[in-house]
Amino acid sequence: MTTFAYRLRFRFVTGERLRMDGAPTTISVGGRSFEVGIEEEYSNSVLAKASSVVLEAGSFATREKAEEFGHTLREIVHLAGLCAGIGVDTGRDRADFGVNESALREAGALPPHARLQPDLHGIMIYPDDGNSSLFRASGRITVKQSPQQLLGAVEELSGPPSVPRVVRAVQLLNLALVNPESPAKIVLAVSAVEGIAAGRNWTDEQRQLLEGLADNVHSDSLTEVELQEVRDAISKLFRLSLRQSVMRVLDRNGLEHLKSEWDDLYAKRSKLVLKQASRAPGASL
Predict the structure, then answer these.
(1) What is the full DSSP assignment across 104-138?
(2) Averaged pLDDT, 100-126
(3) Which DSSP letter does residue 145 get?
(4) With CB atoms 3.0 to 4.6 Å apart as the test, which of 69, 93, 187, 200 could cross-link to 122 if both were Cys?
C-alpha cells in the first residue's frame, strides 16, 4: 500500500493591503518551517482591497496531525492579527472557486493521477505526493502595508489562548478590524468584551448573603403570598447581569477608571443598533 505524508496550506485575508517586496519567504511556527506567500485578493467581498497570506508546510505524518496543527495555527494567526493591529479573516475552509476535474481529464488537459485542489479560504490538508496543483482566479491590486509585524507575531507566539471565551473574543476583535463598516466595528468590539465577561457567577459569600435575605423576609403587613413574591424577586438576583460581569472584569484587571466610559459606549452602541434597525427595509418601530 502506498503511504505518503500530508501538506497543510492556510490562506487567510488581512484587513489591510500588504507589500509583497521584502516579505520573508519562510517563517518558523511550532518548530516547523512554513513557506510564506502574499497574494492579491480577488474576492468580491468587503475585503476585496485586502491581501491573502498563504502559509504552507509539508511532511505531516497523518491527516489528523496536520489538522491538529492547523487548528493551533489558526488561533495563533488570530492573535497575531490583533497584535499587529490589522486584523485577519481566517475563513471557514471553503473554496472561492472550483473546477470540473472530470471534464479536464476527458479533454486530455489533466493527467489521470493529477489533482486540482480548490483555493480554500482557510485551512486545506492534502496528500504531499507532488500530484496536486492549485486552482485559483487572479486579480491585481496595489499593496501597501508591510507584512513584517504580522508574520513576526505569528513566529513569536507560542500558542493560542487557552480560555475559549478569550479565543472567541480575539476572533471578534479581528473581524472588527477587518470590517470596513464603522457600525459593525463598534458592535463586534463591544460583543468581544461582553463575551469575555459573560457567564460569571456570584462569589460564595455573595450567594450566601442573597440566600440569607430571601430566608429572612418577614412582615406583619403582608400576606404569605406577597412575602413569597418578594422572596422570588430576591432569588432572581442569583444570576449576575451582563453589565455586572463586565464591571467585575474591569475591576479585576485594574481598569476601574473605564467603568463610566463602558456605560457611555454601551448606551451609544444600543442607540446605533436601534438606528440601524430602523433603516432596514420593512422595519417598524
Answers:
(1) HHHTTSS-TT-EEEE-EEEEEEEE-SS-EEEE---
(2) 73
(3) B
(4) 93
C-alpha cell of residue 11? 490562506
Least confident of 13-22, 244-253, 271-280: 271-280
Q: What angle do CA 105, 106, 110 make, to 5 degrees?
A: 20
Across the strands, what pairs with 13?
A: 52, 89
Q: How far apart are CA 269 and CA 285, in angstroms?
A: 17
Q: What is the mean pLDDT of residues 29-51?
A: 73
Report the sign of the C-alpha dihedral through residues 243, 245, 251, 253, in that order.
Answer: negative
In angstroms, the CA 168 to CA 197 distance is 12
Task: Using alpha carbons, select from 2, 60, 12 the residue that is nearest to residue 36.
Answer: 12
Q: From residue 30, how far is each of 93, 103, 156, 199 by CA, in Å?
A: 22, 41, 10, 32
The pTM (predicted TM-score) of the whole model is 0.69
